[in-house]
Design the sequence.
């Protein structure tokens, strides 16, 4: 089973696999756009501004997914000391920080006409802003430590500890009084079936986009590592030749 999984992963991460994933992501995003703008009806109370949900919610989902990958990859690095896990964690953190920022900005654009303000210290908003700060600090820490093994070890610790905020963000609207709506309420749906289908397709499309971005970023990091190793080898060769 492990061998079959490794072969499957190899096919997905090949250049052909990347192109297929890219085409699937593009098609899914196009379908999601059509469903979100044409098929799904406007909200009965909020009107068309509610359509931001089809990007805002997937952006928040990708933040959770990205930092989950950072969490798992960081644990794997501490257990194995294999650099590929560190590269995976770093690449996923960059994507997560980007989509967390997107979720915050879209939330502000959505909140202004509905709440009458760009920002309020609501539990969901506050914990999300803290999540962005934690993983932005993670990236700053990685860039500030030049030695690869120390960079990976320090980053792994921060990546693991920082993930504690993800369940807090998710549960914040259930634990504390919040202005932020819950799309899925226990026992009933708070959106229509057409909206739900559009949202599910959007989540799937953005997940495919995440996988594409992660593979591309990991390949870029791998190419950079090989280039650095080649430079070091050439420098050592030139030093010995001198």
Sequence:
């Amino acid at each position: 089973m492990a061998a079959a999984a490794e072969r499957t992963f190899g096919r997905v991460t090949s250049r052909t696999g990347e192109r297929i994933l890219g085409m699937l992501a593009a098609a899914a995003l196009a379908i999601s756009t059509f469903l979100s703008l044409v098929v799904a009806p406007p909200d009965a109370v909020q009107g068309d501004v509610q359509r931001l949900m089809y990007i805002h919610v997937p952006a928040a989902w990708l933040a959770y997914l990205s930092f989950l990958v950072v969490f798992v990859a960081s644990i794997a690095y501490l257990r194995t000391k294999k650099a590929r896990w560190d590269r995976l964690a770093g690449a996923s953190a960059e994507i997560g920080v980007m989509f967390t920022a997107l979720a915050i900005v879209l939330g502000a654009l959505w909140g202004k006409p509905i709440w009458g303000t760009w920002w309020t210290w609501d539990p969901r908003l506050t914990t999300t802003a803290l999540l962005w700060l934690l993983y932005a600090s993670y990236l700053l820490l990685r860039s500030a430590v030049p030695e690869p093994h120390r960079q990976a070890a320090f980053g792994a610790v921060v990546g693991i500890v920082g993930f504690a905020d993800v369940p807090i963000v998710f549960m914040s609207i259930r634990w504390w009084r919040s202005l932020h709506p819950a799309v899925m309420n226990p026992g009933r749906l708070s959106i229509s079936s057409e909206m739900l289908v559009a949202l599910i397709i959007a989540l799937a499309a953005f997940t495919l986009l995440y996988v594409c971005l992660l593979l591309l970023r990991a390949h870029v990091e791998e190419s950079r590592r090989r280039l650095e190793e080649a430079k070091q080898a050439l420098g050592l060769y030139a030093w010995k030749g001198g």
User: Anything to note?
Assistant: DSSP finds eight helices and two strands in the chain. Residues 1-10 have pLDDT under 50 and may be disordered. The CA atoms of residues 118 and 181 lie 16 Å apart.
